[in-house]
Amino acid sequence: MTTEQARLTLRLLAAADCELIAAAFARQGWNKPADQYARYLQEQESGRREVWVAEWEGAFAGYVTVVWESDYAPFREAAIPEIVDLNVLKRYQRQGIGRALIQRAEDRIGNQSALSGIGVGLSADYGPAQRLYASLGYQPDGRGIIQHGKPAAYGATVTVDDDLVLYMTRQVQA
Q1: What's the half-sphere exposure (Cβ side, CA atoms, 13 Å) at 155?
Q2: In Å, how far from its chain's centre is CA 76?
Q3: For 161-173, what is each residue's pLDDT tens digit?
Q4: What would the pLDDT profile of 35-73 be if each residue is shown by its tens digit?
Q5: How remote is the C-alpha of 1 from its chain's centroid?
Q6: Other C-beta atoms lying within 10 Å of the C-beta of residue 56
Q7: Cα(97)–Cα(52) distance, integer angstroms
Q8: pLDDT 10s digits, 13-28
Q9: In a 3-state reduction of DSSP, which class is residue 52?
């Protein structure tokens, strides 16, 4: 185990994490309310979602979730689990934490599916995620950009926001 790996711990979300995570993101100006994580915890307990929390030297650093039944219809219809809501605090970015979280998610997905799905926003705010997913081998699913769950038609005017997404897949190992 390398020194970097010894500094990083990945574990499932616990009830005590909800307020802590919300506060950590609020400190860097991101609005991620505690009730979001309480809902994630309920979904984890019901088996609809898994939430993996990353700690760097014991401090919260980020998280990722796996949704077993995607809201994105092509993934849902093909039974492709989706990696959703990868977030790493700014001060912990570019240290391999996002990559480690994705790997953990893919390890879990590989037990149920040969494919992992993921969506990424198209604005510059998502640039780090876009680069990470490409470096991991994620390929667009070929359906073009999606907004509010529907393909953006040729010539359409779209609003660039968190709902303008490119979905991708990657083969994962069991």
Answers
A1: 0
A2: 16
A3: 889 999 999 999 7
A4: 999 999 999 999 999 999 999 999 999 999 999 999 999
A5: 25
A6: 19
A7: 11
A8: 999 999 999 999 999 9
A9: strand
Helix ranges restricted to H, the chain: 3-7, 17-27, 34-45, 73-77, 97-109, 127-135
Confirm if 10 and 54 have CB atoms less than 8 A apart: yes
Which residue carries 């949704």 as its tokens? 67
Report which of 77, 142, 67, 155 is spatially closest to residue 109, judged by C-alpha positions. 67
pLDDT for residue 174 is more than 90: no
What's the token pair of residue 163? 């709902």
3-171 is classed CATH 3.90.320.10: no
Cβ 112 vs Cβ 145: under 8 Å: no
Are the beta carbons of 66 and 50 closer than 8 angstroms? yes
